[in-house]
Amino acid sequence: MTSDVLNAIEALSPQLKAAAARADAERRVADETVAAMRDAGTFRVTRPARHGGGEASIRTHLDVSSAVAAIDGGAGWCTALWNGGNWIVSLFPEQAQEDVWGADPDALISGTLMPSGPVERVPGGHRLSGEWTYASGIGHASWGLAAAVLDGGMAWTLVPREDFEVVDEWHVAGMRSTGSNRFVVRDAFVPDHRVLWLDRMVAGDNVTSATAATFRAAFVPSLVTMISGPLLGLGRAALAHVIEAAADKSIAYTSFDRQRDSTAFQLLVAEAAAAVDSAELHAYRAADLLDRHAAEATYPSELLRARCRADASVAVRHVTRALETLLYAHGSRGFADSSPLQRIWRDANVAARHGMLLPQVNLELYGAALVGAENTVSPFV
Q1: So what's the pLDDT on residue 152?
Q2: Measured at the alpha carbon of residue 77, what is the angle toward residues 344 and 17, in degrees to the nearest 5?
Q3: Starting at the edge strand that comes first in sequence, how are the strands of the sheet with 195-197 ordered?
Q4: Which is nearest to 378 in space by CA: 114, 116, 79?
Q5: Domains delineated in the chain
Q6: Can you give the pTM of this predicted structure?
Q7: Total H helices, total E strands in the chain
Q8: In this predicted model, what pLDDT tens digit does every residue of 74-98 receive, in sequence order?
Q9: Exposed, middle or buried by CB within 10 Å (0-12, 13-18, 19+), for 373?
Q10: d(CA 329, CA 212)
């Protein structure tokens, strides 16, 4: 299934490239783009087989989102988040999964991990109100994942589209087309089966469940690793663009009619290529570790889980540094509105600042685990 989807994504490349600039300007992935990716099976690879999905590994999450991001960064980011939403819903009780995909096999899920409220316990569930920001792709979503602090601890709640409204406020420098807007819930009833207790997931409860291997992957590091995927695609796309242009582009105020003939240019490209390669090595190392433990139904140690978070941050940092090098190599033309390079640069630098990818956070978590110090940074490891 995965190879078919990757081939279909490649076939969609002309359509996605043609729509990318408009999506960036309109701050929303075009409906036609989403429909084309849906028809290609892009969002089905991560669902349970009983709901028509491919039960994709964490490695496949990276393969798919990076393939889309190499064409259009915003669409690739939404792909990572929507497929991540599928993976999360697959951890909910079966009745919740039926609520989502039974009525609409193509339903998309968006949400955020930052809790809001208030919440009131009522018979059979909770009444929920609140606002959730930075929900990528929420304009296309049929369901919202809204984090909240309930009587039993922190949880993700599933809210249908009719129970929330989207506030259009996503005005940013990059990843514009992700439409990462705020959604608002006012006094919605959430039945008990649409609640996923996050502290239990963080503790590894899903690892021992009798389900497909991928849904046994360690919860937090899997989500962090997934969102590194689009950055890998952006790095590959920038490198390819600069190399292709080097055959005909000169270097201003020098004797070089072709950039490719300059040793200095060659060194910059090699440096950037090595950085992109390093990013992939780190991201896929994390994915493979998570997949291996999931297959064995074992929960990685806190040290390994922290290392996965660090791997994702290091991968992302390698990509942003590679882009800086590539823009020096390519020259000022890369910042022209007509150049895809400036959009890649903007998208990557905004995505790299996602709270789950910040190197100062993830490296501190990893450092504490390495030296055996108490983790005082975050419970999400």
Answers
A1: 77
A2: 55
A3: 109-116, 143-150, 153-160, 195-197
A4: 114
A5: 2-206 (2.40.110.10), 217-371 (1.20.140.10)
A6: 0.96
A7: 13, 8
A8: 999 999 999 999 999 999 999 999 9
A9: exposed
A10: 46
